[in-house]
Amino acid sequence: MSKAGYVVFTFRFEKEDGRWTAYCDELGTATFGRSLPEAERKLSEAILLHLKTLDEVGERDRFFKEHSIEFYLNKPKDDIQVRLPVSSNSYIHPHIQPIPAGVV
Hints:
alpha+beta; 34% strand
């Protein structure tokens, strides 16, 4: 059973043709929404499904190691800095994702 903890993902949002496209750079997960809050909610749901699948097939630890995703036993501080190039149609922020033990 996998341990409970936290990971930090980079959420990147880009406005295109009146919709927001949402990406998680570390997982390669993407979705879209009509608004920024909708896109963020849908991306969070997609990430949880991705993590659940990794856990169910026993691949979470290998995937995290292969993609340099750091696992924290304690919640990281909220003042995480993200340094990526942005444009006027982009919004980027770190997302601290709690991971329940063996359930994800």
